[in-house]
Sequence to fold (327 residues):
Amino acid sequence: MTEIRWGILATGGIAHAFTQDLLTAGLDVAAVGSRRLDAAQAFAAEYDIPRAHGSYEDLVADPDVDIVYVASPHSHHLAHATLALEAGKHVLIEKAITLDAREAAAIRDLAAARGLLAMEAMWTRYLPHMARIRELIAAGTLGEVREVIADHTQRISDDPAHRLNALELGGGALLDLGIYPVSFAVDLLGPVSEARAVGRLADTGADSDVAIAARHAGGGLSSIAISSRAAGPNTAHVVGTDARIDIDRVWYTPTSFRVTATDGTVIEEYRSDIAGRGMQFEGLYAEQLLRAGRTDGDLLPIDESVAIMTILDDIRAQLGVVYPENR
Fold:
């Protein structure tokens, strides 16, 4: 594929951020779709997008769209990704990829059957400072990596109607915020072999605060704090036998970090200098795969997205969070 044209499915806040970053990187956003034509038209006017569609069905049927960014709530990701895949479109699906592992596997299997790319938009994985951290670990700079410590804690809303507190929308801090540090720990330490979680639930039954301790297949440990009711430092640390990496706030966005040896010597200081929020890098990576004729990536294979959802399913069960059957 030489020219790759994007379609944006849904027009919420994350769709605005992603579209702005795509345009900053010079990528081609050809169309946007919403359940309301006026919303799609307003979005298209804001970003000078050629076509606005008043339904998701019309968006995925657009012959000038090659890949669809699914920006709806994760409670709807399965339906909307399926709609696009069945129309022959590749999909980049906002994290969390789905509500649970069963849904994620269904998307994986459909994409494989159709020969299409299905990729989770865990945009943090594709940021330049994360690439540098993986390089440092691979080079042995940290020695044996023993532990990953990270928090994603924000003061968002205690309104029962808010998306994060609504179980019918897959509400809860775990899927919306916790996916970041869980995916980060898996990226650096490998698959989770054991996880223990405790938490607090909102009045709606959605999780609002979660603490996770996990053991990974290689023996490393991760310690994760999540909250939608209180803002913490939002920093992360990768601790090895020879050195550690301290990632500044907000660690899952473009930011800086330091590499410090066990004797206190600063080995490296990294400063981020990129335009926008940094969501363009996942878009660029998806395009790189498509131009190479590939339908899965190395940075976050679809099987790993399914495995991460399996971890989150287990943690949610430990917390007693149950989504309604009729969501």
The chain has two domains: 5-121, 128-273+308-319. The first strand starts at residue 5 and ends at 9.
